């Protein structure tokens, strides 16, 4: 039988509907129906056991991740990356402890990889009660740290890619401390996701040590990557480098001073605000960021769109709407920082 996502499967569709009804409350049953059909189609199309195991384990890991984070959806969270090899007596470890404690005191929760080093420092500063640990099963270096060992918010992953989704999807900000290949991999993925608009705009703070780890990286980026034209100057808006944990905290909190969140609707970008902008402020944004707009379009105030009904707790927020070109995501970060000054 050639299964289809449209309702043309006859008895199979009726049996799937019966199964969904049989198990009790199922949210968004049409989506669940498509997931069941995807599983059946995979069984039809793929005979290679390893591929089916990957699909199965991926679904299990993502389901469990969603379940763990769901009850904390209204809490803002900061993901911390950094070396597993940082010792507890190193200054950068203590800086991370202070940084995460400041954030926890402000009501944020902390997400780390759950291992030793900087990850342990992040969980230690925030405290177990304010922490998540998204751990990866490795033959070395990555056992859960003692802060999170018995924590119900400890998740153990088989696949790096599922773990990376949790790091970025759930975070309102990302802080990166010095580290090795794993840290750089995680940081560069966030750069790419923000630069291409595949994740919502968020502060990306590179917190430096006394030896200038990120200063050396910045020199390479400026001289080689920018120098060869592989990135644009506006991409430098994506990140902030600082050695001061207080400045790092301010960078995160001030990003949400007036900016709340955004949503795309076809060609329109809807930006939700904590307070309404004046006509003069809107004109100032248009004047300073013309590259972001389609020709002969303007920034306007707008009511909630019908498709935003699935986020009822946000409907009362003021909004602005613009025809964004889906190219200048670095400028979008700068745009958000500008409207936070109003």
Give me the Rg, rounded: 22 Å
Overall strand count: 11
Q: The CATH topology of the largest domain is what?
A: Rossmann fold
Largest β-sheet summary = 7 strands, parallel
* Widest sheet, order of strands: 4-3-2-1-5-6-7
Quote the average pLDDT. 95
Please indicate the percent range of residues in DSSP E strands (runs of 2 or more).
Answer: 5-15%
**How would you sum up the global shape?**
globular
SSE series: HHHEHEHEEHEHEHEHEEHEEH
Number of domains: 3
Tally of contiguous helical segments:
11
User: Uncertain runs with pLDDT below 50, 5 residues or more?
Assistant: none
The proportion of residues forming helix, as a percent range, comes to 40-55%
Structural class: alpha/beta
What's the level 1 CATH class of the largest domain?
Alpha Beta
- For the record, the CATH architecture of the largest domain stands as 3-Layer(aba) Sandwich
Termini, distance in Å?
Answer: 60 Å
Can you give me a brief rundown of this structure?
With 342 residues, the chain is of the alpha/beta class. It has 11 helices and 11 strands.
């Amino acid at each position: 039988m050639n299964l289809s996502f449209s309702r043309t499967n006859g008895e199979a569709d009726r049996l799937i509907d019966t199964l969904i009804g049989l198990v009790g409350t199922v949210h968004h049953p049409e989506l669940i129906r498509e997931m069941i059909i995807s599983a059946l189609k995979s069984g039809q199309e793929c005979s290679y056991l390893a591929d089916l195991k990957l699909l199965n384990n991926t679904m299990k890991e993502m389901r469990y991740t969603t379940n763990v984070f769901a009850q904390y959806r209204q809490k803002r969270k900061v993901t911390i990356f950094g070396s597993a090899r940082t010792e507890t007596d190193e200054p950068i470890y203590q800086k991370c402890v202070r940084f995460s404690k400041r954030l926890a005191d402000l009501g944020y929760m902390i997400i780390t990889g759950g291992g030793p080093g900087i990850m342990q420092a992040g969980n230690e500063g925030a405290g177990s009660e304010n922490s998540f640990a998204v751990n990866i099963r490795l033959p070395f270096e990555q056992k859960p740290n003692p802060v999170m060992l018995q924590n119900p918010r400890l998740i153990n992953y088989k696949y790096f890619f599922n773990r990376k989704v949790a790091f970025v999807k759930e975070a309102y900000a990302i802080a990166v401390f010095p580290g090795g290949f794993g840290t750089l991999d995680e940081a560069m993925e966030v750069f790419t996701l923000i630069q291409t608009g595949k994740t919502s705009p968020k502060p990306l703070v590179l917190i430096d040590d006394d030896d200038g780890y990120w200063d050396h990286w910045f020199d390479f980026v400026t001289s080689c990557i920018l120098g060869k034209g592989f990135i644009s100057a506006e991409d430098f808006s994506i990140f902030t480098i600082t050695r001061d944990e207080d400045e790092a905290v301010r960078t995160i909190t001030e990003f949400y001073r007036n900016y709340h969140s955004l949503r795309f609707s076809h060609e329109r970008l809807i930006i939700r605000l904590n307070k309404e902008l004046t006509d003069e402020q809107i004109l100032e944004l248009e004047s300073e960021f013309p590259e972001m707009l389609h020709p002969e379009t303007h920034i306007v105030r707008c009511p909630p769109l019908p498709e935003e009904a699935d986020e009822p707790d946000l409907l009362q927020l003021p909004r602005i709407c613009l025809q964004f070109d889906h190219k200048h995501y670095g400028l979008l970060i700068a745009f958000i920082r500008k409207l936070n000054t109003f």
